[in-house]
Specification:
Shape of chain A: globular
Oligomer: homodimer
Number of strands of chain A: 12
Largest interface: A-B, 56 and 57 residues
Radius of gyration of chain A: 24 Å
């Protein structure tokens, strides 16, 4: 094991920061490709910032949020919450009744835990369905809230007809509908040409402003004015609302959002995945890019080394941990290919999964074909570097 | 009534923004005195902002927060929450048990509603005491959490010995203690030379980063590492934690905080109040300044006009609403004395109370004696303006 503790992780990170600085100083920012996708989504200008410091700023951002939020989500009124989970909690606190049912419909289990957790908090019963017939057949009389998640984290999408049917069922019974459209508000509409949740009849919708758009971690709610007003009151009681700096960043994220950019990033992801699938087994898709887990990376390394040399002995890799493979590869990607991934710059304790985020701004400057070649090259170099512990250490801990 | 609806409020605000701009353009920023105290407390530099946009920023701010937070509050670990109320909710969700008691001790009722509300959410019973003997005599066996508020909104301060006694009582019974030190963390220590809550033995403390310091609306928690870790986990489940832009603003607020500045602002408040008390009945103290409510302003106007002219007829004021008095005075303060107060620049629906915040940065540039004269002058002008509806309208709605 080369990276033994937090101190080693910090050392590795310091080397990365020096490499990044030297690339920017010597070649220019355009020669560095930050594919971490971990931008804070805080796009404010200095002017915004000055405004934020005054009594006028928050009111201006709030006005803009109403306009941009309604364009994005529809509905009569917009309300910004600290997180999507905070919005779900506030809605359930406001609408769900003790001993009644909160019924959740989604295209595929598992459900996001914030929904059953919040229901449990108010003493409501929680039921979840992924089969529309079971949902219809088992719908309890005593239901106070229906939650629909039309797009899961893995981008499983509910058919629009089915979505509409579930909303209509609740509306026929006068039960309010909250749509948890975390990434769906963009994925469903931009990629699958579906309607906004409010257009399909939902009373309330909440979306995550950091998913598939350049906004901050936070939740944006829209819906019927009377319900939003009640949820707002409840949120202020428990501190669930978004604060002005986040509202500013949401406004900037919404201004910056463009359906076509999203379409392009998803098309790029598919293109890259198709290219890589010819040579590798290790890549998996993420919502906006591709990734390689520690275990997949190790398996691919062993497979490749065996292919290369049939008498290859796996014990020669024992001096490396699975995380070491990720860290060394991430450092090679940075030093040799100028591609920044999370394991190169992460703080101690972060996941070592190597992700390539294709919604990152720097992707605009890259041909997918070139990105494929760089990833491919760096993996070949990784196989080579693993032959020598000394070289591997040098890659991790030396600036030159 | 001159300000009849939201549109009139917006017009008045637009005039104010023009006046502010012309003062800054013609005389310079130094000739404008913003005493609203409504700064967003967002002191970030452009460099911070660039950092906030990257994967590295939030980790750096989090590191700084641990260091500065411990200096400010003591304790083993720091955790930033979206609001003080969010921190109270997270603590009660984590520690208070169903059917047990949450016991709240404070030097003077009323208690902040977030404590009973959060207790009710987990099905805990809530008891509150302002008398230490009753607190000791009626303390229930089945108590899962003790909350102590050692400094109320009105700056009523718990005696340090009594504070220590209440903490010790809970600790003898192995019951965790949360101190709601919203403004107290600064008021008690800087002004009353008391110890930090953690130094007095509290397991947990939460303070508001926008009270008596230039931070954002938000809560900063400190305490025992194991409890903070549990509260952090619970907060992440329900979206109660502070987001990176707020954490950055907390770091800046803590860096900027200086006990001596606070001491000075409170001394200035007392000095100003003493001067004004010779001439007026209408002023009340706020935590960091003074204020005049709509009703107090009306009473003072009537009293002054009667004093001036014994046959003064109150019906001559019927053309003005109580809010109009505040708006006209605020516009005179701005146009004639270059002092910005909230009613001059507020959005529709805001409170019309006229506040002078003496912790505002611009107070550094003002002699209290001069501030007193400006307030005095503007009130005399107000009495004069109220004689003519036409002039009053002009003050509200005309730039020149």
């Amino acid at each position: 094991m080369l990276i033994k503790d937090s101190l080693d992780e910090m050392k590795k990170r310091e080397v990365s920061l020096k490499v990044i600085k030297s690339i920017i100083d010597n070649d220019g920012r355009d020669y560095l490709y930050d594919l971490t996708g971990l931008s804070g989504g805080f796009l404010a200008t200095e002017e915004d910032l000055n405004l934020l410091e005054t009594y006028i700023g928050p009111a201006i951002f709030e006005e803009k949020l109403q306009i941009l939020g309604k364009e994005h989500l529809g509905g009569e009124k917009i309300f910004a919450v600290n997180r999507t989970s905070s919005g779900i909690l506030a809605t359930i606190l406001t609408i769900a009744k003790e001993d009644s049912y909160v019924v959740h419909f989604l295209p595929e289990f598992p459900a996001h835990p914030s929904i059953p957790r919040s229901a449990s908090l108010v003493g409501a019963n929680y039921l979840e369905f992924e089969d529309i017939n079971k949902f219809i057949a088992n719908f309890p009389e005593n239901t106070s809230l229906v939650v629909i998640t039309p797009s899961t984290m893995d981008h499983k999408i509910l058919d629009e007809e089915e979505f509409k049917t579930t909303i209509d069922l609740a509306k026929d019974k006068n039960i309010p509908v909250l749509v948890d459209d975390a990434s769906g508000a963009r994925l469903r509409t931009a990629i699958f040409s579906q309607k906004k949740a409010t257009e399909l009849g939902a009373d309330l919708v909440v979306t995550s402003t950091d998913k598939l758009m350049m906004g901050p971690r936070g939740g944006l709610m829209a819906g019927k004015e009377d319900l939003i007003d009640e949820i707002k009151t409840k949120s202020h009681q428990f501190g669930l609302e978004a604060q002005p700096p986040s509202i500013l960043a949401m406004v900037k994220g919404l201004e910056n959002y463009n359906e076509n950019d999203l379409k392009k990033s998803l098309a790029k992801k598919d293109e890259l995945m198709d290219l890589l699938a010819n040579d590798f087994e290790m890549f998996e898709k993420t919502p906006t890019g591709i990734m390689v887990s520690e275990n997949n990376l190790k398996d691919e390394i062993i497979f490749s080394l065996k292919k290369d040399k049939s008498n290859f002995n796996e014990t020669s890799l024992d001096k490396f941990s699975n995380k070491d493979f990720c860290f060394i590869w991430a450092m090679l990607l940075l030093k040799e290919e100028h591609i920044v991934t999370i394991p190169a710059v992460s703080m101690p304790g972060a996941s070592a999964t190597v992700r390539f985020d294709l919604a990152a701004n720097d992707v605009d400057r890259m041909d997918i074909d070139i990105l494929y070649k760089r990833i491919n090259n760096s993996f070949k170099k990784l196989l080579n570097v693993l032959k020598s512990e000394k070289i591997a250490k040098n890659i991790l801990f030396s600036f030159n």
